[in-house]
Amino acid sequence: MSKIKTLTRGIIKENPVLVLVLGACPALAVSTQAENAIGMGAATTFVLLGSNIVISLLRNIIPEKVRIPCYIILIASFTVLAEMAVEAYAFSLHQSLGIFLPLIAVNCIIFARAEMFASKNRMVDSVLDALGSGAGFTLALLAIATIREIFGSGSWFGLPLPWLSDNNAAIFTLAPGGFIVFACLIALVNKVSKGQAIKRNDFGCQNCPSAVACGKIPGKGGES
In this predicted structure, what is the pLDDT of residue 195? Predict the structure, then answer.
């Protein structure tokens, strides 16, 4: 796979949120304001980048049987660093993101990229993969948050918008509005890509980060 494809596939073709539907919980929870979306996206990208680099460098050293616990420790460590940095330099953002900031440690996107890519590829490719997936996650959150904030609060990045600030639809700031926007964006991506954003067979057990744990991959402790 070329370096450009490695970098860009996480933005549209394998967008973590709008195509693979990973990380949907934080995507909907913090996307009521565009500023929160940027903050969550940046923190997640930092953790994704750091864990991908370290896992790629240690992929031939980490024993097969304990690789998942090792991934957890590494990802949790980078999450703590990200949380401490946000709390120190952007306290208001830290308060807005709340529990979803430390929960980056269990984000399916990060585990998926660690298991499916970083553990099998060199550092340079892993960095590009992390940047692409992080950018795709951030852009998806920003798109959702932009729509919800504009129509739900009548503002964008906290700046009041003419007419909309006095004629907003509060439902967009609530969970139902989040799901409506989420569904519409998924449909839009599917329409733009003509249903070919990702092939159906790419969703098989071989590409699932949890396949080993549930015993679906032969030759790795599971049944064929």
Answer: 67
Write down the pLDDT at residue 215.
Answer: 53
Residue 122, C-beta contacts closer than 8 angstroms, at least 6 positions apart: 56
CB 137 within 8 A of CB 44: yes
Contact yes or no for 185/140 (Cβ under 8 A): yes
Handedness of CA 147, 152, 157, 159 (dihedral sign): positive
Q: How many CB atoms lie within 10 A of CB 61?
A: 7
Q: Rounded to two decimals, what is the model's pTM?
A: 0.83
Domain ranges for the chain:
3-214
Does residue 164 have a pLDDT over 90? no
For residue range 138-161, list pLDDT tens digits in order. 999 999 999 999 999 999 998 888
| 170 within 8 A of 46, measured Cβ to Cβ | no
